[in-house]
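Two quick folds needed for the group meeting slides. Do the first one here.
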Amino acid sequence: MHLSKIKYLLTTSVLMTMVAACTKDVSIPVQPYDSKLSIQCLITPGNTPRAYIYRSVPFFDANVLPADLFAGNATVTMSSTDGSETLLRDSSWNAFRCYYEYFFSGQTPVQANKTYTLSILYDGETYSATAVTDRRTVQLDSVTYVPKFKDLYGEHEGIVLHFKDPAGKGDYYRFDMGRTFTPIDTLFGPNKEVSPCALDKTNWLQEIGRTIYPDKDIDGETFTITVEPTYKHKLGQIGYVRLQTMDKAAYDFYDQFDRQKLSQTNPFVEPVFILPGQFGSNVFGVFGAYAVSDSLRFEYPE
């Protein structure tokens, strides 16, 4: 054997021995954990309410699916000046992620310009918050497309929403698009796996923007929002884009949520923690109201 190969093998062997010698199993003691509720309920006139109520678990907990975390034994009521109703346990099949999503569902459509109170009785404690359905609907002027734009997360393609912000500060906007999809054509998960369920079926997909945009610096002016699509698409695929106008409670919660995600992926961003809000110190979440525009037809140009 050539001398250089012998030196290479000896060096490799020494390095592997050193790495093996440095390996050590470390036991991390399990710390006490106080589980909290996570509540998300956004209501809009004309739709029946849905309240997503889950319990939090430690980071290394094996329970991660909605079925494991759903607080199904909670008692949930929603009331207004017209009366109250108990929201019932319900679920829907998520054909993209291949599991059932659980929530509490009402039967009475929400009405405009009313104050609603959401109350949750769970584990002997009652949590409540209010929301007012007085958001004004802002219509889209047009929807366009850009092959590349840059934001804090890098460079992406983008769907661009164009509209006129009405005068008067305090409007908060979010992207909303519905379209059909076939899971076999759609990237799924962080490793870009193909969704394993309903591969030969066409399903309806509702894509909601992660970020909510305030009108703080553009009050009464032309507003554009550029959003990176979440899911894979094909040339000529059709979507129906709407604009949600949110209230401040929804903005405050999802703004923290968005900044927390950014801090997890960018080491130069200060860590952000989601703070308890409307429901008290032991609950995370939001009870908010929004209005939604008519949809505009959008066709992917590539």
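Then this one, please, same format:
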Amino acid sequence: MGEDAISLVRTINEQRVEVFPLEAAVMDLGLKNRWPVHHLPIEINGRPACVRASTKRPKPLHTDMVASVLLFLGSTEVLPELVPKTLHALLTNEQLASLPEPVRRQRNMPGQPSTSGRTFLPEERILELTQNHPDEPFRVQFEKRDGTLRNMTARLGVLLDDGDEEGEPSAQQRPLPYDPSTYHLLPVIDTDLMQYRNVAVDRVTGITAAGETYRTASFEGV
């Protein structure tokens, strides 16, 4: 960074953290800068810290995220449990050891028969409807593996994403380590979230595609 760069600096546990709020504005304007897209202009001990936006859309402005970081780092006492994982270099070994164990999300066994008692449309019909009209969005309600119902507007295809500045594909675009069809899953794009999701095609209670609507007695909603 040039000598005229404006930054805010704080030392935490003998670690120097530096934030460049004006560079965040430069990034939001789409002007040339040295920071990878989606990352924040933050350095720890003179080296860029890997702090980036979440994958949700629309992504928040860099200036808004930097403002949140400044409020957090500017507090009288920085609580270790609130420090983002990407800034754990600011913590002492004792503080790191005091952090609670991360809560792991309970994983549901894929492909297991439903125990909800709901009735579902034939899987073959769902696959036929979606594959015969691959360019058209469809509305679907299906039972998730945890037993709850999910409504989704989806489409087949590839989600276009700018990825990282270095050209690395986003995690969403990397090949899956399993065959979704083995678990009765259909990879789709959630058109509201603009993210990849899976539809449980063996647990569909209702679908509207290509002007056709099919529902079972277990369909909930209008």
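Slide caption for protein two: The chain has two domains: 8-98, 123-215.
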